[in-house]
Prior knowledge:
Elements: H1 19-62, H2 68-83, E1 90-93, E2 96-99, H3 109-121, H4 123-128, E3 137-141, E4 148-150, E5 155-159, H5 171-181, H6 192-205, H7 208-221
Parallel strand pairs: 3-5
Antiparallel strand pairs: 1-2, 4-5
Helix pairs in contact: 2-7, 5-6, 6-7
Amino acid sequence: MRTLPEQRVPDQVQTAPSRSDQTRLDQARADQVRADQIRSGRTTAARTRAAGRMTARQTTQLLRDFQRSKVYEAEHLVQRIFDRSAEFPVVEVAGSHLVLPVERRFGSIEAVQHYVDHVLALRWVRNTWRRASTSVTVRERAGGAQAHYLRPGAIMAVPGHRAHSTWALRELVILHEIAHHLADTIEIAHGAAFVDRLLTLVDGVIGPEAALLLRVNMVDVGVRVG
């Protein structure tokens, strides 16, 4: 029987891609790389934003004004004592009898401005706090609820006669706002460092008797003193 010779199947021939096919392939690879880079950049930006938000939250918590109400409570107690100083000029504080010094009152916003300029110009104040060389602009506030200090621009806003409220036109209140101004950096608004500056100002400007009275009342209501 005659057999046919075995036919060999030729190996598959691989042809090189054409120039146009190679160009499209390179373009597709480049597009994929760019897409990966964009996705990576978006992810990095999102992580950066999240970290920024976390930092802001942590900063807010760190600078939380935790003892503001206690500071105000102690100050209001002392102010009421000074309001009656003409009738009761001697008070007992921590077992000692103190003769209350005079607390200045102001008749206008212009008088407050003059007082603030005078305090910041005191040599011992300038030697103690660098911010004393930065002047403060005092303006009358339309509302009568509270006085406040704005660090940007170094502005002290104080209720006055226009708001039919003169409660803030007194030395203890103005020294409170000056103590905010003298902070070297942003800090807890009524924290221990602020309280220490306020007590130092009251001691040096009004008198040590007033500072002792304020310190004792602050300690009594739980204020942390630096």
